[in-house]
Amino acid sequence: MSLRTLLGASILLRITLLLYGLYQDYTSPLKYTDIDYYVFTDASRYLLTNSNNASTLTPYSRETYRYTPLLAWLLLPTALNPQFLFFSFGKIIFAAADVLAGWLIYVVLTNRGMDSQRAGWFAGIWLVNPMVATISTRGSSEGLLGVLVVGIVWAVLRRRVLLAGVLVGLATHFKIYPVIYAPTVVWWLESEGSGGSEGESGKGWFEKAIGFVNRERVIFGTWALGTFVGLNVWMYKLYASPFLQHTYLHHLSRVDHRHNFSPYNTLLHLTSSPMGHSSTPFGSIPFLPQLLLSGLVIPLAFAKHDLPVTMFAQTFAFVSFNKVCTSQYFMWYIVLLPFYLPGSVLLRRPWLGGVALVLWAVSQAVWLEQGYELEFLGKATFVPGLWVASLLFFAVNVWLLGIIVGDIRRRGDLA
Amino acid sequence: MKQRSTFIVSESHGTLPENFSLKKDTFIIKALPPSTVREDRVTFSLHELPAEIQDVLSSCREVHLKLTSGDIYEFIDPYSSRTPAGLHVFLSSEQGASPDSICQLLEKVFGINNCWGFKSSFIEIPGGYQFYSPLRSASTFVQYLQNHLSEKDTLRRSEVQSLESAEYIDVIYDAIAQTLVLSSVHAPNQPKWDGSSITSAKTSGVELGVFGNITPMEEEGLTLAGFITELGESDDFEPTMFSFASRHHRSESTFSLATARPAGLHPRLRLSIHGTAKPPPNAGDECTLNAYFTLPVALFIDKYQLSSDNQQLLDSLNIKRIKAISGETDLEAPVWTREKWGSRVLVEVDTKGGENGIELELPLHLRYLEPRYNGTTTKVDFAWPSVFWACRSEQWKMMAVNPFDRLHLGWEDLFPEQVMYYYLSPAPHGEGEGAWSSIDVPVLGLENAEMIKIGTVTVVGLGFLWVLFKIFMAKLSSVREKKELKRE
Description:
The structure holds two protein chains of two kinds.
Chain A: H1 3-27, H2 35-53, H3 69-74, H4 83-86, H5 89-111, H6 116-127, H7 130-137, H8 142-157, H9 161-175, H10 181-188, H11 205-212, H12 215-253, H13 265-271, H14 287-302, H15 307-320, H16 327-334, H17 337-340, H18 345-348, H19 350-375, H20 382-407
Helix pairs in contact in A: 1-5, 1-6, 1-7, 5-6, 5-7, 5-8, 8-9, 8-16, 9-12, 10-12, 10-14, 10-15, 14-15, 15-16, 15-20, 19-20
Chain B: E1 2-9, E2 20-23, E3 26-29, E4 37-45, H1 51-57, E5 60-68, E6 86-93, H2 102-110, H3 118-121, E7 123-125, E8 128-133, H4 139-147, H5 154-161, E9 168-174, E10 179-186, E11 197-199, E12 205-214, E13 221-231, E14 238-245, E15 248-259, E16 268-274, E17 287-296, E18 299-300, H6 311-317, E19 319-327, E20 342-349, E21 358-363, E22 365-366, E23 377-383, E24 386-392, E25 419-426, E26 436-442, H7 449-487
Parallel strand pairs in B: 1-12, 15-25
Antiparallel strand pairs in B: 1-4, 2-3, 3-11, 4-10, 5-6, 5-9, 6-8, 7-8, 9-10, 12-13, 13-14, 15-16, 16-21, 17-20, 17-24, 18-22, 19-20, 23-26, 24-25
């Protein structure tokens, strides 16, 4: 697919969905706009009220605002009047970020030598994906993360290390999880010439350690850490402990007892209640396999071989092993899928790809059906229904992750 | 101790003296129309109360406690005010003091189990604190009172026993007066009073009044006519007639509450106003129709979802606006992390197009309830709201002189003082449940606890090992490939 057609189609798709959303919001009590979007825009409005009245409203005055204040600042125009003109500003930003991310995917793919036709098809997985377009036009901020993450890939591959560092710092400030990309980038940025194991085998650990520290790694690390710390210090100065509590600490201490796709969901629901309390720290154990895999083992094993695919595998592991998981989390790895898919075993053996897709979708559908029975019919499907369904979905994800990590080095020619 | 008993009869012949007889210190009821409402009001001095009650009251300035049965009954002015069924406590504390042991006392006296501590369970409202429990019966209260009476005091014991059938019981403590007033109102015909008597003990005086409502002499006012007497003091009935402005009135309309089925985790309450939803005649133009809910902590409304920004949704629900929500409003926390009793919600009903009744829908959400043994559902009880017209009145200053006035019903702080209330009567579709509803809430069965722990850990552990194994195999084969490359 040519880039022009693709971008045209993806923009048209988003404009259509935006307009449809306006129509549905105007005519139906059931809103197209995502609940989180009201949270963001309320937070922005509080900011504006604040500057007018000198009262003490902050974005965190809005319950369940658990994001960086940068997001509320970015969406400040949504608080302007007339509302019918400005309210959707944030959705436009998100959708534009989406399209930009897709364009960057295309750029990265062609830079790696893929012909533009083929790159168009793979970028299309993100660009004309109805799920992606719907999520961002409903006002979910995942598109911003998407563009930051693909931006990291682009910057690192172009050896724009400083920019990559800033992006990793910014993305981590935004949503914490992109911190897992830092070790990957660091590992990947080896000194030119020292690549491969030749010549290294004779060196002692000291020389190896010295050799590990190179200019690019230092620049990347400094800017990543600097951006992250700088933004946090700045925000902390402005909003103090509510910022720290809602943006970060909440995610460490949160107990996601309400049903979601995570395999831990039923366990946490059980053990967070006084009657089901357990002396085993089930609330923190899940971090261990998750961070080991996504933050350490996968980057160390594959980063030097293929950066974007490693990032895809990491993200897939992170989401699959996460304590909480909703369909928005799938966006985190779908944005990196176009880097893995070309030449992967899922395409080399189409039947395997087909089975994987069907299993991924069906196990999700099984869970959704059980979730529907609980949420809307009031049936107690916690056990076995939702529990088994989430473990099943986890098993499918882990099976797929096994295929992906086994495949990273075997992937065929990109072109 | 002082007692005041009042009978309000709706038929004019009810107040005729020949229906009663008076013998020294005993008043005997020979025949009363079945539609009679009876109120008994007993005033205690602080020192007459048990020490544990005195102890709690010593840190309170005012306490207003209301226990409403939720039974369906026909009400008569001036006893027409209604709170949602259950136990309501409003209190204001003395400066710097906090009645920390009030929860133990409430648990002992009323048998409630959702009060964990004054600071943690009471919610703050303008001018004080509020607590609520969806308590259905006064039996523990009656038991508690009887434990403080001697076995021989059969007269008092039977009076106390009758509290169990009261429509509502009010307990009012006032630190300035140093008195505690216990009053109970019995609805018509329940039980029949014929043949019963009221006797004054040596230690207490008893005032009696039997009245009927007659055509009010003033608009917005009530006029009662009948007789009064004081046992032991006078031996005759003294004809009386008096008028007063009343804060509370009855409205002719009725309402009912239903829950859309299946309720799921987002129950929708349907409040139906039957008949024409028009302000009461003579009430002036400045009237609003309101529903006041006391929601137990398991249920909550999302104030953002129902904010006035979302006019579309409010219109479709026939809600004019949510006037107030206070108390436990967290949007996601499970019940077991919450200690407050719940939340109070005042909804203004949209009366547009209400010629043939109104259907209002209030979308609620459920918190996760504690996992439990035995069964995978548990019932959450909640009371029907108080539904009333609130109308601006010019006579509000006179309301204070009403000997039957009732205050601290839960919503007064949300209205200006110069307002009169006109209450709609609950009219359930079925029998037996009264002004109560309940919904079945799915819960996680604790029987499965071990299986969940072992199963989850096993599956996640195996998955983790599987991925590690695949990564190891991938590295291994790449190392082999490199060696082979070198050999070549």
